Amino acid sequence: MPDLGSRHLSVVSVTNLVEITELNFGYGSRLVLKGINLTVRKGSLVAIMGLSGCGKTTLLRLIGGQLQAHEGSVMVAGQYLNNMSQSDLYALRRRLGMMFQFGALFTDLSVYDNVAFQMHEHTSLSESVIRDLTLMKLNAVGLRGVQSLMPSELSGGMARRVALARATALDPELILYDEPFAGLDPISLGVIGQLIRRLNDALGATSILVTHDVQESLKIVDYVYFVSEGVIVAQGTPEQIRASTLPFVHQFIWGEADGPMPFHYPAKTMANDLGLREA
Amino acid sequence: MVLESTLRNIRLVGDGTLKIVERIGATVVFLGLTLTQSATSFRRFDLVIREIFYAGVQSLIIILVSGLFVGMVLGLQGHETLQNYGSEQSVGVLVALSLVRELGPVVAALLFASRAGSAITAEIGLMKATEQLSAMEMMAINPMARVVAPRFWGGVISMPLLAMLFSAMGIIGGFLVAVVLIGVDDGAFWSQMQAAVDFRHDIANGIIKSLVFGIAVSAIATFEGYEASPTAEGVSGATTRTVVSSSLAILALDLVLTAFMLKGWS
Ligand SMILES: Nc1ncnc2c1ncn2[C@@H]1O[C@H](COP(=O)(O)OP(=O)(O)O)[C@@H](O)[C@H]1O
Ligand SMILES: [Mg+2]
User: Fold this and answer.
1) Where are the domains of chain A?
2) Which of A59, A256, B110, B129 would bridge with B230, disulfide CB 3.0–4.6 Å?
3) What's the gap in Å between the CA of B146 and the closest CA on chain A?
4) Tens of pLDDT along B135-146?
5) Chain A residues within an 8 Å CB radius of B130
6) What is the pTM of this model?
7) A9-244, which class in CATH?
């Protein structure tokens, strides 16, 4: 019996890099995520979609161990994050790469030093090896030419690509992307999308992409989870999602102004607010 | 009604006091945390040197110029007053002691708080607001060790050096006014100063003061930056708080330290 149990566990950890079960989380007393169940298969590129404020970034922070689940469990690479010690967590994070919403490049370091940062901090590689690796990473995102610029001198799209190079600097097993498309022009957006797909496959990594950009992400991902008000309301492959008849998904994909997600925030009646009529 | 409003006012005072005490406590806890995360700073001292450049070297101009002016004013005022007692040669002693014991450490620290302290708070606060600190944590690097501790030590090391330079410039300023401008005998100016200034009682105590101020300002500046709410208003509020709290802390600590130094530590 114990033999079977451990075999089962190892099989699970090989096929699913991330496993979230019955997760509840809130800031203070307000629940932001409710009863989330989510699995990410090794090697796949999964999107988590939903409106702004539905809890996507929170979910990523839970996966990265920056927040702790109130109830339920988060398992990454076979390890439960609940009550993990700081040193274990840091050891796990070395196998993770994360790209933040606006890149979060270190503003006091050049592009080169940003990408080389983790190599300098975590490895004892010689300077010439670090140089070669850094230039390769920058080359992969097409930005070897800007290595000596400072982040403030980059356009939004370029900063995002540098952040991508930095997130993949140590060839992570799991890459997390927070809104990689937000605020980009259509060309940069396509470039970033293709890069995310290509890096995932080239590194043999697994990626989780949090976004509200439906059209771009449906082109590149393997599987989609829809989150609305802290609950997963739909999931499936891009084809299944496109064909979905669920009203919420339909409204989201086709960008309709009104639907199950109302245009109006709940309020008193207009007449009441304008003081036209009492009682 | 009167009772009620009196009670409310008492409660407001108590509430405010509690908040201040809580803030001081949190800053001290943060200082302790910084100290436990300081190993990286000493293993890789280049990180600290970089911060000494930003906090110390970049404050040089304002410190040197202010020191010169303060010393010149001391020379003028001192000469004016001492003249009444026929002891204008002692102006050198007055300038040197005022600077080394009090004005050097205190004014340099106040200037340091508004020049370097506010910059440290703003920088750390912006790193937090733009998720740079989160990004660092996700790279398995502790921002307390990599960002906070080097800035703290950079400030602590810079402060006594800046205070000494401030005093040195002040003495030159006093010399320029009293000797070169007014015509006090320069032999008397320097020899009386040399005879009256004691290394342990005056200079060493001044250095101890500036070291304590450096610790206070650096701890407050890093704490406010690290705890700033991650928005534009949050960072600007934190920057203001750094300057206000640091200045109050410097003046309060100065009173305590001076009392001990004059009466002896026992
Ligand atoms: N640090 C925080 N403290 C309190 N509430 C927060 C915090 N961060 C986010 N929230 C709230 O949690 C909800 C989800 O936020 P978030 O995960 O950032 O959403 P998304 O990334 O999907 O836009 C929002 O309503 C937001 O206001
Ligand atoms: Mg978000």
Assistant:
1) 9-244, 249-279
2) B129
3) 10
4) 999 999 999 999
5) 102, 104, 107
6) 0.87
7) alpha beta
